[in-house]
């Protein structure tokens, strides 16, 4: 979900410390956005990250959620649906299910999700599409939105 979001403020030269400053405004905005999108559990994971995962959690929080998901121009519903389609195309099953739930929370309907998956299936192929539809149906059932 976050692999390609690189804020200019966090670009560092090779060999430099990759730990992002947790008092940074993008980090704080990212914490709030993560909580809004995925609930308190995502903040718990961030706060309890071990020393190996901490740089990744901080980077994802700042770059993805603090710098990209908070931008104007697209609604959270639209961002959720777009990211869901990308996860389907890349066979990212766990994030796909999480983003289906996120999309519903952000106002997407079962019909919206179906249309996005139909459009996506055309470009990713039937096999990937069928699997994505099955995962989306599981996610919708888990939140009683099926």
What's the layout of helices and strands?
Elements: H1 25-38, H2 40-47, H3 54-68, H4 76-89, H5 93-105, H6 110-124, H7 126-142
Helix pairs in contact: 1-2, 1-3, 4-5, 4-6, 5-7, 6-7
Task: Please sum up the structure shown.
By secondary structure, the chain is mostly helical.
Protein architecture, described:
The longest helix is centred in the C-terminal third of the chain and has 17 residues, at 126-142. The two termini are 24 Å apart. The protein is globular. The chain folds into two domains: 8-68, no CATH class; 76-142, AhpD-like, CATH 1.20.1290. Residues 1-16 have low confidence and may be disordered. Helix 4 packs parallel to helix 6 (110-124). The chain has seven helices and no strands. With 146 residues, it is an all-alpha fold.
Task: Please state the overall shape, judged from the principal axes of the Cα atoms.
Answer: globular
The share of residues in helices is 55-70%
CATH topology of the largest domain, what is it called? AhpD-like
Radius of gyration: 16 Å
Note the gap between the termini. 24 Å
Largest sheet: none
Strand composition percent: under 5%
The CATH C-level name of the largest domain is: Mainly Alpha
CATH architecture of the largest domain: Up-down Bundle
């Amino acid at each position: 979900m976050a692999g390609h979001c690189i804020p200019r403020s966090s670009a560092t030269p090779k060999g430099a410390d990759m730990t992002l400053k947790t008092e940074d405004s993008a980090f704080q905005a990212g914490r709030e956005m993560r909580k809004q999108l995925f609930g308190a559990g995502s903040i718990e994971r961030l706060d309890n990250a071990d020393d190996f995962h901490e740089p990744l959690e901080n980077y994802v929080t700042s770059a993805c959620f603090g710098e990209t998901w908070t931008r104007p121009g697209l609604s959270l519903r639209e961002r959720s649906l777009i990211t869901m389609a990308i996860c389907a195309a890349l066979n990212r099953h766990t994030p796909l299910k999480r983003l289906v739930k996120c999309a519903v929370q952000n106002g997407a309907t079962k019909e919206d999700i179906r249309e996005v998956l139909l459009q996506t299936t055309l470009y990713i192929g039937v096999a990937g599409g069928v699997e994505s539809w099955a995962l989306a149906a599981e996610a919708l059932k888990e939140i009683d939105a099926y």
